[in-house]
Amino acid sequence: MMPNHARYIDNPYVVEGETNPTCKFPAKDDLDALVARIGRRVDYTRPDVYVGASGVALLQLHLGDHARALVVAENALRTGRRLRSGCSFLCDHVGLLSVAAVAIHRERPDDTRLPDLIHRIEAAVEYVLRKDTGDELLYGRAGYLYAIQFLRKDFARDPLGSKLPVVAKQTFDAILASGRRSALARGPPLYWRWRGKTYLGAAHGFAGILTVLLQEHRVFGTVITPEDLQAIKATVDWLARLQTNDANLPSTLESGHADLVQFCHGAPGLVLLLTEAMGTFEDMQKDWLRMAEKAGLCVWRKGLLVKGVSGLCHGIAGNAYTFGALHRATGDTRWLSCRDAFATLAVKLLSQSRLDNPDHPYSLFEGIGGLAWLLSDVLKGGEAGFPAFSDVAER
Ligand SMILES: [Zn+2]
After folding, report:
1. How many angstroms does the Cα of residue 389 sit away from the middle of ligand 1?
2. Measured between alpha carbons, how far is 145 from 98 in angstroms, rounded to an integer?
3. What is the tens place of the pLDDT at every residue in 259-300?
4. 314 annotated among ligand-binding-site residues
5. What is the pTM (predicted TM-score) of this model?
6. Which segment of 40-49, 62-71, 207-216, 351-360 scores lowest on mean pLDDT?
């Protein structure tokens, strides 16, 4: 039954105050069918990770099909028009170059194209360090820092990767400096705006930027001063306390209300941040875990989105990663059941073609690529980080 609110359908597994669904597990056949559909419809007119061909190559890498990933990445390099001069992993040319570099490195580590690819990615730090570059994930510095994290997992022991920690540190410092410059007299010590607004969620705002910064420190051991660490801690806590009565997070500070529950805006980004931040600030664990679990319940109730069944950015598949993060933080297997329930419902809703009508239906961030990634993680068991965002520790 469709309720009168427009953004989500009621979760059929919800029992008030509980998260304890029992449902059919997604099957390998469901995953195989999605992957076959995606493989037939790679969009080479869009070479980016977010909705384009390099997102498909990245999915193939995740599935362990490195040969297929290489074919798609090479085609994308060859035929894809040049993307805007930016620096982020998800939406700019840096993402295409990074995915191609890893695909080539895994299949042909001695390939002579690799030094040029790595050099071009490193050279994009010039754009990162420009004063007018933003700090957010989708187009800004945090998106570049993620690209360098992604590469370091594969190039850590390769001489070609030796300068990557240097550009990562430059980017890390630039984000912190920008945050301090924009801080207001009354407010958190770090403050970032994008296109004139104070975005709070993962795609354009505080949650995305802070998660990538903390991941840099925790996973790669990037040195951070006690003052900067304290500033990050106070800013995370400030953000967490903006939670609304129903445990959602407003899209912007200016909007004053919160009606979106999706990776890009709202509670999912807060859960991903708080569960990451607990790993660095153990003294905040109790408070932040309570807030993260409340936000997780908000996603459980309001995260079955009408407009995007299968995508990562504003779809059910992306929202499901909230529960994996909570399982990692708590060890409570009920959260994994929630994730599996969302995966199952997304498969079912997609098969009924009731709800899904994205602009890029076969893509990673807006289409069935996201659901394929989720099903592969569900079938592997355990929990995995959010694709192309909070997943560098386990790759
Ligand atoms: Zn979105």
Report:
1. 13
2. 12
3. 999 999 999 999 999 999 999 999 999 999 999 999 999 999
4. yes
5. 0.95
6. 351-360
**Token duo for residue 133:** 């570059």
Rounded to 10 degrees, what is the CA torsion of 156, 158, 159, 160?
-90
Instruction: Compute the chain's Rg from CA coordinates.
Output: 20
The Cβ of residue 29 has, within 10 Å, a number of other Cβ atoms equal to 8
C-alpha to C-alpha distance for 120 and 378, rounded to whole angstroms: 35
Q: How far is the CA of 223 from the centre of ligand 1 (A)?
A: 32
Domain boundaries, the chain: 1-40+304-394
Helix 285-302 crosses helix 267-277 at what angle (to 10 degrees)? 150
How far apart are alpha carbons 375 and 310 in whole angstroms? Answer: 11
- 83 alpha carbon – ligand 1 mean position (Å): 20
Is 87 one of the annotated binding-site residues? no
Give the Å distance between the CA of 241 and the centre of ligand 1: 23
Ligand 1 center to 19 CA (angstroms)? 25
Could you tell me the distance, in angstroms and rounded to a whole number, from the CA of residue 372 to the centre of ligand 1?
A: 17
Q: How far is the centre of ligand 1, averaged over its atoms, from the C-alpha of 394 (Å)?
A: 24
Nearest-5° angle of CA 367, CA 370, CA 375? Answer: 130
The tens digit of pLDDT for each residue in 166-202 reads 999 999 999 999 999 999 988 999 999 999 999 999 9
Task: Output phi, psi for 119, to 5 deg.
Answer: -60, -45
- Beta-carbon contacts of 112 under 8 Å, excluding residues fewer than 6 positions away, are none
CA atoms of 57 and 325, how far apart (whole Å): 25
Nearest Cα neighbor of 212 from 118, 336, 87 is: 87
pLDDT greater than 50 at residue 75:
yes
Q: What is the pLDDT of residues 217-234, one digit of tens each?
A: 999 999 999 999 999 999
- Report residue 58 as tokens: 């990245």
